[in-house]
Amino acid sequence: MPRTALLVSGALLAALLPLSAAAHAADDPAPVPVDRFEGEVPFASQPADGIFTWGSDADDPPALHLTDRADAPEGAKVLTGTYDISGYGGFTHDFAAGLPAHDWSAHQGIRFWWEGRDNGRKIAFEIKDGGANGEASELWTTSFTDDFTGWKQIEIPFTDFVYRTDYQPVGGIDHVLGLTGMWGYAVTLPAGTKGDFAMDDVELYGKADQSLRASVGTDAPVYPVKAGGTAAVKVTLATTGDRPVDDPVTVTYATQGGTATAGRDYTPTEGTLTFPAGTASGTTRTIEVPTRKTRGAAPARTIPLELTVTGAKAPAETPQVVIDAHGLPYLNSRLPVQKRVADLLSRMSLQEKAGQMTQAERGAVGAGGDIATYALGSLLSGGGSTPTPNTPGAWAKMVDGFQLRAQATRFQIPLVYGVDAVHGHNNLAGATIMPHNIGIGASRDPRLAERTGAVTAAEVRATGIPWDFAPCLCVSRDERWGRSYESFGEDPALVQSMETIIQGLQGRADGRDLSRNDKVLATAKHFVGDGGTAYGSSTTGTYTIDQGVTTVTRRQLEDIHLAPYQSAVERGIGTVMPSYSSLDIVGDGRGAVKMHARGDMINGVLKGRMGFGGFVISDWNAIDQLPGDYATHVRTAVNAGVDMMMVPYGYKDFSGTLADEVKAGRISEKRIDDAVSRILTQKFRLGLFEHPYADTSGAAAIGSPAHRAVARRAAAESQVLLKNSGGLLPLRKSEKVYVAGSNADDLGNQTGGWTLTWQGASGTHTRGTTILQGMRDAGGDVTYSKDASAPTDGYDVGVVVVGETPYAEGVGDVGNGHSLQLSAADQTAVDKVCAAMKCAVLIVSGRPQLVGDRLGRIDALVASWLPGTEGEGVADVLYGRRPFTGQLPVTWPRSESQLPINVGDASYDPQFPYGWGLTTLTGVPRGGTAALQALDAAATAAERRGDARAGRELVTKARLLVQQRIGDRMTPGAAKPFADADHLLLTGRYGKAVEKLIEAYGAA
Questions:
Q1: Which among 778, 768, 771 has a CA at the least distance from the CA of 731?
Q2: Cβ neighbour number for residue 668 with a 10 Å cutoff
Q3: Which of 15, 401, 466, 775 is in Cβ range 3.0-4.6 Å of 780 for a Cys bridge?
Q4: In this predicted model, what pLDDT tens digit does every residue of 491-512 receive, in sequence order?
Q5: Of 60, 94, 126, 809, which residue is the catalytic one?
Q6: Could you give the CA distance from residue 139 to residue 124 in angstroms, rounded to a whole number?
Q7: SS3 of 595, please?
Q8: How far apart are CA 287 and CA 402, in angstroms?
Q9: Each residue's pLDDT tens digit, 759-769
Q10: What percent helix, strand, coil does the chain show, rounded to 5?
């Protein structure tokens, strides 16, 4: 961008300018003050009009003062400050949020006085355009360099500002600097060394030139056309406020450059378009570029259409006509995928192969020009990285726009776009949000897991996205882990049973369904052992367990952590993502090694022994955690078997370094070809070469009643009834119910992390039904008091809904600002309601909460997990529309000191064992030892004849019978065999499972 002019005072400037320029300046509108720094604007933050500081940590915000200065360029005071910034820091002036935004469109730019230190440092200056207020606006930025001494007036024309691509507070609004709704400015100070500054008199200056409020654009940056066809490039005049132009606008155009040959591949085109004075905004002219048919096969060829604009702002980039690739074998959909891959691979350059192995974040590529420049193979949306507006149509349009960019590459290899849709299409407002995996595991319903995956896939693919970074196949062994809720449970057998979700996402294991408009490529993550990290082993920031070290014997590694990946490979999983964590295999002599560097596990076990034929995608910037310099990071991960690197904002460095490492012989061309072949195979299977753009025919079903019915059932089946003294549940509609607690009426808490944003948020941010509303919709006689401050007299029963607020990943680790204890407010609500009446306590959380000290005062206790958007599903079991059938997917501890505690442990004394779950089904089996022995015999016979359905039913009857016997008298002698029985059930050993239940019965 142009460097900002550093100007002397206005009087001297007028003396230096020719008379015509001085006369023009005299016609300009009078400057409009923004800040005089005389005390008229306070030090305050939103919603007030004020100046405030900010920074990356507590030490980074600068210290500001209004200082009397005799040499002040204007008035008596100036703004001064000192700073010592390690990360980032600066200050902002936000206009009052309660008043209308300011209109700056009549002016040429903004200027201010700056006291130079001649230190050569760059100072970023940004302005805030559009949106609801100064903290929810669009940021436009430029910078100037402090390479002078003393006071200088810095003038910045508005044309110098560019849209900020590395951060936007609301994800961007319209990407247009309209200047009619301005909310202030911000200054980012230099980091790295101590400094001070002085500033004065911020004001708007000059008369807006037409090129600021008028622009010329084209309807697309790329125009693919079959050889012999004619490309129609629409050129549109647009103005701020839709006002007609005052002066003529001309557009001179000519086809020149590119990879196509003029006269052979296309007919050269040139000319001039004129938009006369008075032309209305939105007026369109069309330029036609004819192409010619040529004999034989050819890759795609480009024809840039150079546009020279006078009287308006020119397009940000030169549009390109692209003559489609044709006649090449890889384009023949009738050929086997393997042959198509081999043909395409044989034609690609090293740089093109490196591009296919590179995945960037959508926010990093801006409008997308780098997609073709770097031949990128993939883009992703990180958590909360969404288009504006966040609608299905906007998602599809955004993805299609990026896919269009890929058409400007030689072989027009489509992008594969990925998102973390980990419990429904959770980045999309209004999508169907399922319970998190921990709740799906509690359902013990593989068919339901498959249906939730199918709904997720249909909603994701309908927005143009063919790839989902799910499911998480972690086996969670310590509930202090902030990702516990991403796991189906602590038992690998339970995780394996829920892998039916892969078929819901992808379809049949052979990949034949991937090209359907309701299926997506799935990702098994995080390979391997991410759920087994030891508390205190993490070295990532303030995390305590996430991204830490998993220390296991080879047998433990195989039986607990690797087992789910073997079955995922057998189910045809398309991609696998390694873990951030490190693996320390006892006795191998290597110590703790980051998973992205473990070639023995990725190449050796996953790809070799297990026969995984898909591709391996890294986690977000994960290679940066490897030891050594950047080239070592790249070389280590790629040689270990990582095929595509998620390098959100570092895609240029990665692709360039990768190519350099190959040229230097440190990464073999064979390894590159293997990686690219794997990636291309999945792109062909997805049908992206034939249909790269969004098929939105299924968009009407997003958030539909049919999809929400699946989520509602999942929410109901995920509810685990831990205690039910006196048969308090289900409730009767005739009962007067007092509802309290922080999570009764909070959709954000109910949906948890990874909902709309990475960390999620409390409050209402999408469409759904809270548990409270679900109870009301069920016909219950309900009164609500969040903090239980309303009178408690006259009620039949209380329902207190408590638990956690949203978090994700290591941010949610216990000890990192989180615990397994209820908040003080929740404890108070439980105590008050349960002291006044019979009460049921529902715990909405991603993991068990420690309630043993209150358990005696609670009549009914429910683990509600994170049920998603359909709170009616919770109400369904509360009011008996469906029975409670859920079972604990993890062990519920008595105290934090017991952690980690898991099924199979030698010492096992939980509050509630793994597999525990009372029911409100009618006709619960009764009997004693004799009944159990009969069930044992029948279960053994069912196992012998391979009758899984009968075996499961018999074990379930025995479990329900034993639970009645145990009641509230849980002992270690009963808990351990009870939990073991559920593991045996999941591994198909039905007779042994009943034998363990008989043991638990005898110990109760």
A1: 778
A2: 13
A3: 775
A4: 999 999 999 999 999 999 999 9
A5: 809
A6: 12
A7: helix
A8: 23
A9: 999 999 999 99
A10: 30, 25, 45
199 - beta bridge partners? Answer: 79, 114
Residue reference for tokens 């020149």: 256
Spatial contact of 623 and 589, defined as CB atoms under 8 Å apart: no
pLDDT at residue 242, as a whole number: 80
Supply the DSSP string of 339-370, one letter for each residue. HHHHHHHHH--HHHHHHHTEEEEGGGSTTSHH
Look up residue 994 and give its two tokens.
């009943």
Q: Which of 494, 587, 562 is nearest to 890 (CA)?
A: 494
The angle formed by the CA atoms of residues 804, 809 and 815, to the nearest 5 degrees, is 65
3-state SS, residue 526: strand
Token pair of 166 as six digits: 């590395």
CA distance to 178, 244, 281, per residue, from 278 (Å): 20, 5, 9
74 is catalytic: no
Tell me the residue ranges of DSSP E strands in 130-178.
138-146, 149-157, 162-163
Residue 509: burial class (beta carbons within 10 Å; 0-12, 13-18, 19+): middle
Do residues 848 and 479 lie in contact, with contact meaning Cβ atoms separated by under 8 Å?
yes
The per-residue pLDDT for 171 is 76
Catalytic residue (one of 619, 643, 804, 826) = 619
Predicted local confidence at residue 26, as pLDDT = 55
Q: Which are the contacts of 334, defined by CB distance < 8 A and separation ≥ 6?
A: none
Please check whether residue 581 is in contact with residue 595, taking contact to mean a CB–CB distance below 8 angstroms: yes
Name the strand (E) or helix (H) holding 501: helix 500-506
Residue 26 DSSP code: H
Characterise 450 by phi-psi region: left (phi > 0), alpha (psi -120 to 50), beta (else).
Answer: alpha
pTM of the model: 0.85
Q: Are 498 and 488 in contact (CB under 8 A)?
A: yes
Element (H, E) at 978: helix 972-986
For residues 709 and 775, what is the distance between their CA atoms, to the nearest angstrom? 16
The pLDDT, as a whole number, for residue 178 is: 82
If you ran DSSP here, which 8-state letter would residue 967 be given?
Answer: T
At 402 the three-state DSSP class reads helix
The number of C-alpha atoms within 13 Å of 146 and in the hemisphere containing its C-beta is: 23
Tokens of 38: 């005389």
The answer to whether the CB of 519 falls within 8 A of the CB of 526 is no
Per the listing, tokens 């109910």 go with: 750
Residues 712 and 432 sit within 8 Å (Cβ to Cβ): no
Angle between helices 669-685 and 651-663 (to 10 degrees): 130
**Residue 619 known to be catalytic:** yes
Over the stretch 776-796, which tens digit does the pLDDT of each residue have?
A: 999 999 999 999 999 999 999
| Number of other CB atoms surrounding residue 99 within 10 Å | 10
Residue 391 makes CB contacts below 8 A (sequence gap 6+) with 428, 429, 430
Judged on CB neighbours under 10 Å (0-12, 13-18, 19+), 492 is buried
Placement of tokens 């109901």 in the chain: 716
Span between the terminal Cα atoms of the chain, in Å = 76
Instruction: Give the separation between CA 114 and CA 35, rounded to whole angstroms.
Output: 13
Backbone CA torsion sign across 260, 263, 265, 268: positive
pLDDT tens sequence across 834-878: 999 999 999 999 999 999 999 999 999 999 999 999 999 999 999
H/E stretch holding 996: helix 990-1003
Q: Could you tell me whether strands 77-83 and 549-552 are parallel, antiparallel, or unpaired per DSSP bridges?
A: unpaired
